[in-house]
């Protein structure tokens, strides 16, 4: 048994549940008498909904296939060898479940080495090798092809990426070393760093070809046939593959510098993966591939044993799995059909909601408000947005006509809601107003209609309390901008029944939102944590810490924006309002900042001015600030803020606001854009020791978002 | 409104390699629609002068029009092949003469002026759609003795044809079959066939049938080069005890697809498309369903009469070899020798296979190649027998004809 085979056998023993990919070898004659060819098909034996992955046993299978092909190439019985995938899938890289199980640095190192040892053999055969990217290719799937002499890509493939950095890894089976040497450092940085950090942006087939990753592109209908005909022509010398010369001069260094700039902008140095990848790309400039592969092995092993990757995988699974099967949601068969939607209010939020319901549910949506002008404005907003979609080519004229015809506005709720199955209110945040609105709706809407509220801070139970049928009231809390942020907090009031809740979840699914079930508690999840977080920042500023110190203190977390920029986005007035609400609920922990109140009172929309091109504290705001004399360091501020967040989350879990810490993290990722490398926040609080310091225990069991014990 | 009948030409034709139907066949895991789609795409690649927007119709034949051969295949195959949505399509069925009928029906429309250029072809995946799948014959056929019970079983109708012509012995049929295999092998060796084949990628997941994974098919699977009379003499006669029809002197059960471009001659010339054959006449004829192999005789009589030609004017024959006996019956009728050099020069369906509704265009593609090679020939014909007692014949003129005397 070769050392590679032994290495993989050892690794396979650690991962008994691997979904094993076979590597089938099939021989045939190429067209034009080009000779006998061996084609390896990567196939896990399941349909396209279960993409092919590489775990250790899968790599061992590929290794065995390469043994055979290598021998045939050496003996001269084949003129070339290729690799392709099952229908619609090439291969989507390493099996992350196997990565999660690794507990020792040397095992992690073995996985990196194992992949390299197998893939690298494709470059060392006595005949040219070809990769045919027939379908989705990610990570190790992309990399196996990079080791081949030539590549073709299908125009039909929807997803091609090196997503490792997005998760907290580096492309570690050759990607970092090979890609810049194939297409140049600048394009490689775009694929490995920029796309990954840009919400794991995928390339389409045409882009793969345009970037120079593939040497030829063919349409999906007869992709493999045309690839093999092309192969025959290449092998016969009828087609000469030409690739542009790589600029190994200053452009290389500039590309790496650009990559660092992008990484800094996204993670602020808080997650190591992008920087490790850039180091390898930088070193790959000398063209020494083996040196690059060795560096990849080290980086992979280090990252696999690090908390950021474990948090990344945890976060990825939350979004992909828990986000699609919400914890605590009732049996979906209880859901009632929703064939018409009512929206109370025709302001901006209500209009955005109307647009969302309209686009996703494609049922009649009727807006109501207190006067015709407001109603007209709301409907006008929706029509204008539909026209924008039409203008961008996102929908065609027929669809635009359909959607416009579906949205109407009336003054009379009885006329609008008498046959609505789902009515959502987005009126002024005042409990009396909301109770009044629901009472009016209940009087005219069908008995089964769901009454939903988009309140961000009021009690859903209280809102329902005066109704004849409070069991059909649910909280339906969206995040701004509604069209972009995926989170929807679904709030179960004290009397909400299962059928209403199931209907709410069914609607959320159709709206393509990530629904999380939350208890009817003040400000629910995201706003409560963000407010506590912001409140602590404001506290330290109020007590005397300079604004820039407070802001910089949380930079190492790599949040999407600084606290005060976030406050500006939310609006200081709204921020103040929520802090007042929470202050009433929990006066011992939530403060109302006098400085914030002063800023709001002065009518300021934010803290910064951007006249110089970068944010600078607005002198008018600076003049308003009344600070104490307690000046903290960045470390001290960070500790205080994180302690506060850990305490709040601990209390929320005790109160049962959500089922588990996982739901908190899912909310923060999808509702506040908190990063994968923090795993939302609880994995970070655990690994930094904050949870134990504050609550005496970790939020998550070992191995959930960390290296298993 | 006065109308002028326009000349109709065969521009080009291609086909997939033919496979053996069944779990071990090359196309066992390949969809029928994909086969014909790939043939259409190859046809368009080979004829860049044909602007896809100018295609007026896609007529695709299949005998069993369900599943991947259903859903108005001509339309769906056009969309799947990437033709513009403005190009319409429809499906055709005349069993074995499906593709032939796709050609003649669209040709008639071209002559009338309704179309300028069309795609016509056929597909049959007899592995996915065995003969008789889903049929529901009206009980009156039997109760009123409208047809003999053997009419639905093509092998039995071939035995019936042997009964009608006792001088067509099993030996003659076997000798004919051996020659068909020899001619086909030679045509392959000479590269006559491959030039019109579309390579097809095929997947195999079951190891019983051979190596698994993706492969590429570039040659007909049913071929049995080197077949001898001895090999054939011992084969079973599955349709009748002590019968004459065997797997060796008949076409098998096969999978495959064909496609052709048919156009008005003016359109072809204006668009720089090749003109490989010019349509002279066509005819279909019905006979007793239980001797369906007799069909080509009256069909050819009719087609010749319409063309004002005699059998002596025909310099090349492409006769579908559903059964050797049916070819021999036609040859005997016209006093043509079993081994006449004008007949099936590249061999026939006994060697290549006969995926029912696709075969007509294979005959045309081969005749077109023979026309190119033999400019001394002026006329040729393609003919086939058709289930339930029919025959179909198309007479073609060689545009390369150089005035020679054949």
From TrEMBL, chain A:
Gene Ontology MF terms in the entry: enoyl-CoA hydratase activity; long-chain (3S)-3-hydroxyacyl-CoA dehydrogenase (NAD+) activity; NAD+ binding
Enzymatic reactions: a (3S)-3-hydroxyacyl-CoA + NAD(+) = a 3-oxoacyl-CoA + NADH + H(+)
Segments forming domain 3-hydroxyacyl-CoA dehydrogenase C-terminal: 524-606
UniProt xrefs under CDD domains: crotonase-like
Pathway entry: Lipid metabolism; butanoate metabolism; Lipid metabolism; fatty acid beta-oxidation
InterPro entries: 3-OHacyl-CoA_DH_NAD-bd, 3HC_DH_C, 6-PGluconate_DH-like_C_sf, ClpP/crotonase-like_dom_sf, Enoyl-CoA_hydra/iso, FA_oxidation_alpha_subunit, NAD(P)-bd_dom_sf
Domain of life: Bacteria
Domain 3-hydroxyacyl-CoA dehydrogenase NAD binding: 340-520
UniProt family annotation: Belongs to the 3-hydroxyacyl-CoA dehydrogenase family. In the central section; belongs to the 3-hydroxyacyl-CoA dehydrogenase family.
PANTHER family: TRIFUNCTIONAL ENZYME SUBUNIT ALPHA (PTHR43612), TRIFUNCTIONAL ENZYME SUBUNIT ALPHA, MITOCHONDRIAL (PTHR43612:SF3)
Name of this protein: 3-hydroxyacyl-CoA dehydrogenase
Species annotation: Streptomyces yokosukanensis
Automatic annotation (TrEMBL), chain B:
SUPFAM superfamilies on file: Thiolase-like
Keyword terms, alphabetized: Acyltransferase, Transferase
A GO cellular component entry from the record: cytoplasm
InterPro entries, alphabetized: Thiolase, Thiolase-like, Thiolase-like_sf_Thiolase, Thiolase_C, Thiolase_CS, Thiolase_N
Active site: 96 (acyl-thioester intermediate), 354 (proton acceptor), 385 (proton acceptor)
Residues annotated as domain Thiolase C-terminal: 275-397
Top-level taxon of origin: Bacteria
Residues of the Thiolase N-terminal domain: 8-266
GO biological process: fatty acid beta-oxidation; phenylacetate catabolic process
Gene Ontology molecular function, alphabetical: acetyl-CoA C-acyltransferase activity
Similarity-based family: Belongs to the thiolase-like superfamily. Thiolase family.
NCBIfam families named among the record's database cross-references: AcCoA-C-Actrans
Name by which UniProt lists this protein: Acetyl-CoA acetyltransferase
Species of origin: Streptomyces yokosukanensis
